[in-house]
Amino acid sequence: MDEDSTPARHSLGFRGTFEVGMALFSMFFGAGNLIIAPLLGVQSGPHALAATLGYLVSGVGLPIAAIIALAHAGTAENLLSRIGRRFSRLFTILVYLAIGPALAIPRTASTSFEMAKPLLEGGGSAAVRFAFSAIFFAFALALALRPARIVRLMGKVTGPLLIGLLVLMVLAQILAPAASPLEAAEGAYREAPAVAGFIEGYQTLDLLASFAFGVVVTGSIRSRGIADHKDQAAQVARSGIVAGLLMAAVYGALSYLGCRMGTVLPDAANGAEVLSASADVHFGHAGTLLVAAIFLIACFNVCTGLISSIAQYFSTTFPKLSFRAWAILIAAISCLLSNAGLTAILAFSVPLLMALYPMGICAVAMGLIPGSDSHPLIWRAAMAAIGIQSAASAIRDAICPGLFLPTDMLPASSLGLGWIVPGIASAAAGALATAIRRRVFPAG
Known about the structure:
The protein is mainly α. The chain is 74% helix and 0% strand. The protein has two domains: 3-340, Orthogonal Bundle (Hydantoin permease); 344-444, no CATH class.
């Protein structure tokens, strides 16, 4: 049936809501989501619960809140235009590049290759890496060029398959724990486990990915006959809650898995190592194949969703290239960058995320607070202060780690949250300036 002839509906019902929620979960749940929670479980040891709760706030709560905010605003640029059209365009482009060809998309192929390498003959060679990434992106591009099929495929096939494989992994750990948690937490988890977990949630990229996935999900809901904007936003919220519950359950399970591997891998460098070791303990050589399948499915889901949604944005913003041309270009660039290797990509990611994430959190708050569009000065002041502080810290960490900055004296700056006080103070100053202006110039 043609989209225009689909009967108007107000909701998708339970089955449709769950299907879209499962698809949204599949889009979010990629490389970072798999490798962070297990390592968090190992390193937080006796504080695993607090660390996991902090991680759920930034890794689940913020992305779902962003999806809902974007459903009401329509697009990321509409949401950010309350601050200014130029800022809206620039920030949206930076976000799409970060979650696209500059970082997140190449990471999907690199992570998949690292997990599949033991199964590939000559897996250590550059030629094998390139061949793997070329095949990976060829299949992802083929599906991304058909955005109407993405939600249905992920909701009915790849999403449930991924969850089934993860359940198998975690269930084995529950029934036969490999080891015990560490007696003492490591690093930042010793002093402030919840805050450390919150910061680790940045690495999922899901808050930034929401700016892209919200468009895909809303478009899918619209194609199913829900035409009214309010009904679309309500349906996105319902499906977002489903995705959030699934993500929270899986993160909690993976954190538990990592926690029970503490004394086996006390010096684990990444979560992929933890998952591989757990699979090897419980399934032997078959565990390598199991973990490779989990990573491949998860990363392929995210890669496909990102190529499609980012190509849609750039083809609308810069229409000289078609959607198909943008999708091919994004896939090609990502394929080349993925051959730099996972370590190089992850090293580049942290400063970029520390600069963009606080501003993304501010944008989500702006989109969820009723009437925020009538108080632009408040949000402009808050975003400016947060942007300056987070960008300065990120540039320092990337170029000259250890260099003292005046912003280091801000409360919670040592925890990576130095942007909170400037943001709140600037928002209060903006509110005061707005009140004074309206009292002095009531007609304005």
